[in-house]
Amino acid sequence: MAVHRFAEMTWEEVRDATGPGSVAILPVGAVEAHGPHLPLGTDVVIAEGMARECAGRIAEEGRSAFILPPIWYTAAPFAGNFPGTVAVDAGTVRDLVLQIAASLKEQAIETLAVANAHLDPTHLGSLRDAVHGAPSGIRIAFLDLTRRRVAERLTEEFRTGACHAGRFEGSIVRAEAPHLFREDVAAGLEPNPSSLSTAIGEGRATFEEAGGSRAYFGWPADATAEEGEETVRTLGRLLADLVLESGAHA
Fold this sequence. Notes:
The protein has 250 residues and is α/β, with parallel strands linked by helices. The chain has helices at residues 11-17, 42-60, 90-105, 121-132, 148-151, 156-160, 167-176, 183-187, 196-201, 207-210, 225-244; strands at residues 3-5, 23-28, 65-67, 111-116, 139-142. Helix 3 packs parallel to helix 4.
């Protein structure tokens, strides 16, 4: 089966491409600070790459895969003090995902897969709530990257928890949108090994409180396109595996 970009299709093309087992993939991200070297839309860059790779794997299994236009705005309180961050509340995101799912259900699409790499705890809560509130007749598949069994499949930096605008995300931007990676700036950034996951566990609520005064964590100068390409393939494969399993979330 082919991979379809939903917004580029006509209504008749959507009608004719939809069949049993059809999957719609929704990239979700935030418009928020990602250090001085990555764009505000980094999370959506990652999510769209993840969605593309996921769709390819699903299509190989003989199922129709539709890549939806992304959700750009979500909860982002950790980055709320930085210029450029544009956030909405978690309930708005939950309700939007649920309403998208309900609309897709009416078109005989059986699964809505959420491609997400924005790890703000408030945002993750909105997606978990959407999974549990999915309308009857459609499954919402959400790959939670913070779950141990998922994180273990990702890069060493990601597993440290110091992975916002560091090597993990920077590598993907270098692979997916190299023109948006400020290489000269990244090369001059010192490593910031402060773990966001540890800070969250300790009750910190902002990047500054977590030790990220410039909104980055990890090793941004070490980002490579080669690592980014491999990471995007891994993310897409993990989401596709989830969709092809019987469970709705990791």
